[in-house]
Write a structure and sequence with these properties.
Elements: H1 2-11, H2 42-75, H3 80-94, H4 98-109, E1 120-122, E2 126-129, E3 132-135, E4 137-140, H5 145-157, E5 165-166, E6 169-170, H6 177-188, E7 190-194, E8 197-199, E9 202-204, E10 207-209, H7 211-238, H8 241-249, H9 254-269, H10 271-284, H11 296-308, H12 311-340
Antiparallel strand pairs: 1-2, 2-3, 3-10, 4-7, 5-6, 8-9
Length: 345
C-alpha cells in the first residue's frame, strides 16, 4: 500500500509530507475559541477546529446524559402519560436518521426564528434569534485567570478523588465538595456579568453561540439521549427487586427508593454501555459539516485539503486525531468503570 501510494504521488509530481501545516491558511473561521486571523497557518486551523469539535462533543455528552437519564426514568413511571411520552420519544428519535435531525434543527427550527429586534427572551438573561443563542458573558478580573484555572482543576479532579484513601477511609461523596470550591473560586474571579441586550439593530454584550453549533448540539444530544434512556431503563430494572422491597420495608417513599437505593446502583452498571454511546457521539460530531459548523472534518478535511492539495496527509491527521481522542476517552471510562463497578462480597 505504501509503495503504491508513493508511485501514484510520483506520477502526479506530488510528494508526501506534513510541511504544509506551516503554510498560511488565507481564509477566515467564523467561530473559534482561540484567536484566529487569515494569516495563521494550517496547523492553527487544526487546533481551532479540534477545539470546536471537543466543545460540541463535551456539550453533547453532558446534555445527552441528563436528558437520557430523565427519559429513562420516565419510561418506568407508573404514570401512563409520562411512560408513553418517553416511549414515543425513544422510538421516533432512534428510528430517524441522525443527519436528518441535525438538518431539521438547523433549517426548520433555527432558521425560522425571528430577527434580533424580535428576539425571544429566555429566563436567565438569554436571547434567541436567527443569529443564534446569546448567553451572559463572565467578565473576569485581571488577576482572576489563576482562580479560573484552579476552579477548572477542582472540577477535573473530582472524579479522580472519589476513591482516594485519606486517613484510612475513602473520600467518597466528600469529593463532590470540590465543585463547590470551584464555584467559589470562579465567583471570586468574576468582575461582572455582561448580559446581552438589543442596541439598535444588533445585540451587544454577552456571548453569541452560532446557530450551527446549537443545531449540531441539539441533534447529537437528542439522538444519543434516546439510546441512553434505554440504557438507564435496563440498568434500573437490573437492580435486584429485593433492594426496593427492603427500602420500602424501612418506610422509604417511591422517590427516595429510586434516588437513594436503586439509581446509585444502576448508574454503576451503565458505565460500559454509556462509553459506547459517548464514543459514537464524539465521532458523529463530523456531521457538523452538513450545517457548516467549523469542526475538524469540515475545516481540515474539507477546506484545508482542497487548498493544500494534500488529501492523504489531511485524512491521516483527521483519523489520528479521532483515534487519539477516542482511545483516551475510552481509557478514562474504563478506569472509572473499574473503580465504581459493583463488587460481589
Amino acid at each position: 500500500m505504501v509503495t503504491e501510494l508513493g508511485t501514484n504521488l510520483a506520477r502526479r509530481n506530488l510528494h508526501f509530507g506534513f510541511g504544509f501545516l506551516t503554510s498560511q491558511a488565507g481564509f477566515d473561521i467564523p467561530f473559534h475559541l482561540i484567536s484566529w486571523s487569515i494569516f495563521n497557518s494550517y496547523g492553527r486551523v487544526l487546533l481551532v477546529s479540534l477545539l470546536n469539535t471537543l466543545l460540541v462533543s463535551a456539550m453533547g455528552v453532558v446534555a445527552a446524559t441528563l436528558l437520557g437519564l430523565l427519559v429513562g426514568i420516565m419510561r418506568l413511571s407508573v404514570n401512563w402519560l409520562l411512560r408513553n411520552i418517553a416511549l414515543a420519544f425513544i422510538e421516533f428519535v432512534r428510528n430517524t436518521p441522525q443527519l436528518v435531525q441535525i438538518i431539521f434543527w438547523y433549517l426548520a427550527v433555527l432558521q425560522t426564528l425571528p430577527s434580533p429586534r424580535q428576539s425571544i427572551v429566555i429566563p436567565g438573561g438569554l436571547l434567541l434569534n436567527i443569529r443564534g443563542l446569546y448567553v451572559p458573558d463572565l467578565i473576569m478580573r485581571e488577576d482572576g485567570s489563576l482562580l479560573t484555572w484552579l476552579a477548572g482543576f477542582c472540577l477535573a479532579a473530582t472524579p479522580f478523588l472519589w476513591h482516594l484513601p485519606l486517613f484510612g477511609r475513602r473520600l467518597g461523596a466528600k469529593a463532590f465538595g470540590l465543585p463547590v470550591i470551584a464555584a467559589a473560586l470562579l465567583a471570586a474571579g468574576i468582575e461582572r456579568i455582561e448580559f446581552p441586550a438589543l442596541t439598535g439593530f444588533n445585540i451587544t454584550g454577552g456571548t453569541q453561540v452560532p446557530p450551527e453549533l446549537v443545531a449540531l448540539w441539539a441533534g447529537l444530544s437528542i439522538y444519543a439521549a434516546a439510546f441512553i434512556a434505554e440504557i438507564v431503563r435496563s440498568s434500573i430494572q437490573a437492580v435486584p427487586q429485593g433492594q426496593s422491597e427492603a427500602a420500602r420495608s424501612l418506610g422509604l417513599r417511591g422517590g427516595q427508593v429510586l434516588f437513594l437505593i436503586v439509581l446509585p446502583q444502576a448508574l454503576r452498571m451503565m458505565v460500559p454501555q454509556l462509553t459506547s454511546q459517548y464514543l459514537n457521539l464524539i465521532k458523529s460530531s463530523t456531521l457538523g459539516a452538513a450545517v457548516a459548523y467549523p469542526e475538524i472534518f469540515q475545516l481540515f478535511a474539507g477546506t484545508v485539503m482542497n487548498q493544500a492539495n494534500k488529501e492523504v496527509e489531511t485524512i491521516i491527521i483527521v483519523m489520528a486525531v479521532f483515534l487519539t481522542i477516542n482511545l483516551l476517552f475510552s481509557a478514562f471510562m474504563n478506569w472509572y468503570n473499574r473503580h465504581v463497578a459493583l463488587v460481589e462480597r
